[in-house]
Amino acid sequence: MLSRLLKEHQAKQNERKELQERRRREAIVAATCLTEALVDHLNVGVAQAYVNQRKLDHEVKTLQVQAGQFAKQTAQWINMVEGFNQALKEIGDVENWARSIEMDMRTIATALEYVHKGQLQATSS
């Protein structure tokens, strides 16, 4: 009877050990699956962040190139406008010069008319 109780006790202990070992293996498998799922989920986020970062870097480079081109074009426009302004000033200077010459010529013409009229009157007297 004592040996039977001992055998039953040992059998129950072995059964419990096997159950405990099976549960331990199941827990390890479940923990491994959970860890893999979490890592996969994090990797998806990291991969998406990496892709987004590469896109942003490409956009930054494109924007820098376009900004440089715009700066060059703006400088060209500024030079064109300055040239146009200079041309307008020169036209204004030529116009003022022409008016000045015209006024001088009218003054000379009027003076010559008076001289000519004076000579005609002096000859007729």
Automatic annotation (TrEMBL):
One of its GO terms (cellular component) is BLOC-1 complex. It comes from the Eukaryota. One of its GO terms (biological process) is swim bladder development. Pfam families: GCN5L1. It catalyses: L-lysyl-[protein] + acetyl-CoA = N(6)-acetyl-L-lysyl-[protein] + CoA + H(+). Belongs to the BLOC1S1 family. This is Biogenesis of lysosome-related organelles complex 1 subunit 1. It comes from Electrophorus electricus. The gene is bloc1s1.
